[in-house]
Amino acid sequence: MSATVPGAWEAGREHRRVCVLGPWQLELRDDELAELTHRGRRVLRGVQAVLRDPDWNTIDWTVDGIELGDQELSISLRVDQAARADAELRVRASDDRLLVDFGLRARQTFWTNRVGLVVLHPPELSGTPLAVDHTKGSQELTAFPSAISPHQPALDITGLTWRAGAGRVRLEFSGDIFEMEDQRNWTDASFKTYNRPPAAPFPYRIEAGEQVRQRLVIQVSEPPPDNDGPVRIEPEPITLSELTDQAPAIAVAASTAADPAPGGEPVSGILLSELIVGAPNSPAALRRAMATGCELDLRVVIGSETVSELTELLNPLNPARVVRIGAFDAHTHLSTDSAVTLLRTALDRLGLSSIPVIGGARSHFTELYRGQDRLPQQLAGIGFSITPMFHSRSTVQLVESLPIQRLVAEQARGIAAGRPLHIGPITLRPRFNNVATTQAGVRTGSDLSSGYGPSQPVDDRQDSPELAAWTIASAAALAVPTVESLTYFEDWGPQGVRDHRGDRPVAAALRRLGTLRGSLSGGHSSDHLVWVLADRRRLLVANLDQVPRRVVLSDRSTRIPLRLAPGQWCEHQRG
User: Fold this and answer.
1) Who contacts 475 (Cβ-Cβ below 8 Å, separation ≥6)?
2) CB 240 within 8 A of CB 558
């Protein structure tokens, strides 16, 4: 394994600065107030001022200045892209109270879907009783959801109160109407309280010279902590337990990059190819996928096309090389009755009705969760994608998503009701914007000289050695019963596991994952930074921490001490 070197993975960790404001402490990550604690106890996962464009994309702030005093913090912000505005995030602390004020002044008129404060609550609040104050003065008694909630757990919020240890935390919001969503739907490790409900008209206009002002008041009532927090035990014992009796097949998605393809062996023998029916270069995309010699996991995206058009597109298929095929509506991104019926009709005409037909959501788990009652009957499997950087592009977000991926996989089992689960493509950033209000640009033409499908952002972490460790950990999190396949990234190209120079570091991890057979066991450290996945012959161990870790892996018959380099993975033979 290659040594850890400063690079894209570390660059994605943001500029960090610990700020102490009396009994309060927070970590300033660029413009985010992260890990807010009071006398050593975590109160909030984070507070941030956000600005969204009319397609719900995040507009990045430029941090112009930071002033830190004994009990005050001021951050000067501005934007010069898609919007022009100056803003300030000001924090003032007292013994039991923290005030966060946000103010923005537009330098020119712009359109937005949201501007203002969001609060991230840590996932360990799951199941905690919660009191919600509403705009008309009433109070509702509820709880932070235990299971992932497909819809908003709280609406019309002016205040929130919950117990924290022997004390309590109270938040008060002003300057807009707030509501909460369960961001675990997108594998974020948080519940989010945000301003301006999506039910309000959007996009909306901010006029030149207009000001936006919002305030968050955080008040705590708790006794001093009994100790300085958890103590890490070195080496930490990790007990392996049975995960699933059948290792998931490991696949990669077909490249969407421009021709020509690089040489070399594909990372997996299974290639997931998504075909946009009616796109002029879909036949070329299918031909390129078939030329790899891999077995194909096909997903067709259907708009207003006819069965004849779909039949013509699928005509070249060799049924012996297609392991499954799914159909999705181009607008809802779900498998609908009409899309699946169209697919089944085309397969019947081609004599391919023996190919298993699956369905689900081509976007995120949340669309599958919300739309499960509308899925067609008699599907041979259920699929959905994972894109942990949907809300945030930070490396912290990637690492924190790992235990939430396990939670998502477990809840997806309930939706699948015994049917096989096919999770993927699993990518760093979304492959397309499923909430855009404008038409996305699609690369067209009859060939693949400019690529295929929607243009996708390039993330430098695709080249990072640490991504290999993250992928091992992700597979360990997602390896639960009935998960039949996991599809990661693309075969080659900017979003791929290979390029024209050869394999990227993540390719070695995927090749190793693909050799696991039979029943799998696994485990993780208490902080979810070390993950283990094992079959009867070998163990794959990943350390996502920034420091070396010493662990002892144990099951009923063995104890294996290991020292793990930061951000790396290793393989260990059993017996």
Assistant:
1) 248, 250, 486, 513, 533
2) no
Condensed to tens digits (0 to 9), the pLDDT of residues 118-140 reads 999 999 999 999 999 999 999 99
Confidence check: pLDDT of 508 > 80: yes
Beta bridge partners of residue 203, listed in sequence order: none
Distance CA 47, CA 35 (A): 9
pLDDT tier at 5, thresholds 50, 70, 90:
very low
Residue by residue, DSSP assigns 403-429 as HHHHHHHHHHHHHHTTSPEEEEEE-SS
pLDDT score for 442:
63
List phi, psi (to 5°) of 428.
-65, -55
The residue with tokens 């078939």 is: 290
**Cα(462)–Cα(471) distance, integer angstroms:** 11
| Angle of the 465-478 helix axis to the 505-513 helix axis, nearest 10 | 30
pLDDT tens-digit readout, 354-413: 999 999 999 999 999 999 999 998 999 999 999 999 988 889 999 999 999 999 999 999
Please state the three-class secondary structure of 519-555 as a single string.
Answer: CEEEEECCCCCEEEEECCCEEEEEECCCCCEEEEEEC
DSSP state of 396: H
Tokens 């979304």 — which residue? Answer: 430
Residue 327 DSSP code: E
- Is the distance from CB of 27 to CB of 17 less than 8 angstroms? yes
Q: How far is CA 209 from the centre of its chain?
A: 36
Taking residues 233-250, what's their average pLDDT?
Answer: 94
Whether 187 and 404 have beta carbons less than 8 Å apart is answered as: yes
**Secondary structure (DSSP) of 425-469:** EE-SS-SS-TT-SSPPPEE-SSSSTT-SEE-----GGGG-HHHHH
Q: What is the pTM of this model?
A: 0.92
Q: Supply 459's token pair.
A: 């993330």
Separation CA 17–CA 21 (nearest Å):
13
Cβ contacts of residue 557 below 8 Å, gap of 6+? Answer: none
pLDDT at 160 over 50: yes
Structure tokens given for 416: 């699948």
Q: Look at residue 364 in the predicted model and tell me its pLDDT.
A: 94
